[in-house]
Design brief:
single chain; about 250 residues; alpha/beta; 9-stranded mixed β-sheet; 6 helices; about 20% strand; binds S-adenosylmethionine
Length: about 250
């Protein structure tokens, strides 16, 4: 396990493989989105831009995802939010998760993209306008009531609409960043100040930025150094902004 790469009053960032950390750290909520297995070899013209993404066979990718879900559901005492976009290299897995983990699926939230590009890679595809966010609960899956919630009387729905992410400058660098409204919504309604939120596939660190803004403790893990540097730079800016406007 590597030393902490960067830390703030609320959060810790680790550079490395999340599998080396998941059993050693203390957390109770997970908000994350794994690599999608875009399959550079598939011919999808944009796949090479996903520099971090593996080019795994179907079975290797399934092993990777199921190994991860096994550890994270075991360790998260409250909720795991797991966002996976359906693409050619993972389509069957997105459905298989429902069967294999049905005991622990409390809900499946839908991330709706208001303005998806008109087609996928070819004219005979339909536009991909939503993504799954599986909500796993190890100890609270029995009924539709949420034992752990921060709803405060708000009208909380199981879908989150956003525009696509193209305005986000980090989207150009990374290609698979969260829209800020995704972690914001999940943190705001499903976590408390006492929780510790982990994002083991942190990318450019949007989960950490939203935790800073909403005053939550967090852990980010990212295996690419280049993205860890970006996370650090973003967290420094975020905290400068907060000090400047005296937001703490
Ligand atoms: C889909 S992206 C997540 C993007 C993130 N939600 C954001 O808003 O920027 C997946 C990330 O997981 C990282 N990753 C892949 N395998 C990893 C591993 N074993 N441990 C830690 N990070 C990993 C990749 O480098 C990539 O940045």
């Amino acid at each position: 396990m590597n030393e902490i790469f960067y830390e703030t009053k609320l959060g810790k960032v680790y550079h490395g493989d999340c599998f080396d950390y998941l059993d050693k750290l203390n957390y109770n909520i997970c908000i994350t989105s794994p690599p999608y297995n875009m399959q550079k070899s598939s011919g999808f013209k944009d796949a090479k831009k996903y520099i971090y993404d593996e080019d795994l066979s179907y079975l290797e990718y399934e092993d990777f995802i199921f190994k991860f879900l096994h550890i994270i559901i075991k360790n998260c005492k409250k909720y795991t939010f797991f966002n996976l976009q359906r693409v050619a290299g993972n389509q069957k897995i997105t459905y298989k998760i429902f069967g294999k983990y049905m005991t622990f699926i409390k809900e499946c939230l839908i991330w709706i993209k208001n303005n998806p590009p008109p087609t996928g890679m070819n004219v005979d595809h339909i536009s991909n306008g939503y993504e799954f966010i599986y909500l796993f609960a190890k100890n609270d899956y029995e009924n539709r009531r949420f034992k752990h919630n921060n709803f405060n009387g708000n009208y909380v729905k199981n879908y989150i609409p956003t525009n696509i992410n193209s305005h986000n400058k980090y989207h150009e660098i990374h290609k698979a960043t969260f829209h800020p409204d995704i972690p914001k919504y999940l943190i705001k309604y499903f976590t408390m100040k006492t929780d510790i939120i982990i994002d083991p596939f942190a990318g450019c660190g949007e989960t950490g930025i939203q935790c800073e803004q909403l005053g939550r403790k967090y852990i980010l893990i990212e295996k690419e150094l280049k993205y860890c540097e970006i996370i650090k730079e973003r967290l420094i800016l975020e905290n400068q902004k907060r000090r400047l406007f005296d937001l703490d």
